[in-house]
Design brief:
Length: 169
């Protein structure tokens, strides 16, 4: 099994990418909350690694406004509840948001909002598993493992044109 990592520069700061064999296993921000243990990162390799090169192209296209879906193969491992939450995050459409409470209700218990927030915060594949699309009850920006500035950047990047145009006036 080949466990490895690399870094890439982006408008969001330096991102650390991790992979296991042919699967992307992580995208982490500088100062990321809930970093995995050192063994998760494996050997340092160049960005030319096939998984990392493809990830970089797709992230660059997304950040340039030319991609709304990711195709790089990935694997996110957590406990059963985390994986259920991360699976649901993948269903949040580009340009949309959902609240922690709405996710908790969809998962069967509106009292699970805090547990949902914990699972969202431990999402190992930021951006591709779009945890930035989860907001507070009244649409306010709340915690984000990559920082609120990056969360705001990603949400604004995904805003429908009509919303962006409405902010101009």
């Amino acid at each position: 099994m080949s466990i490895r990592h690399t870094t890439m520069d982006s408008p969001l700061g330096q991102l650390t990418l991790t992979a296991r064999d042919e699967f992307l296993t992580g995208i982490f921000y500088e100062g990321h909350w809930h970093m995995p243990p050192p063994a998760y990162f494996g050997d340092s390799v160049g960005i030319g690694d096939s998984v990392f090169a493809r990830t970089r192209v797709e992230i660059d296209e997304y950040l340039a406004g030319h991609r709304t879906l990711f195709t790089v193969p990935f694997e996110a491992r957590g406990n059963a509840f985390q994986e259920k939450v991360w699976s649901r995050l993948q269903g949040i459409p580009f340009g949309s948001t959902v609240s922690y409470g709405e996710l908790a209700t969809e998962l069967g218990d509106p009292h699970l909002a805090q547990a949902v927030g914990s699972a969202v915060g431990r999402n190992p594949i930021s951006i591709i598993i779009p945890c930035h699309r989860v907001v507070g009850r009244q649409g306010q920006l709340t915690g984000y493992a990559g920082g609120l500035r990056n969360k705001r950047f990603l949400l604004e990047l995904e805003e429908p044109a009509v919303v962006r145009e409405g902010k101009l006036f």
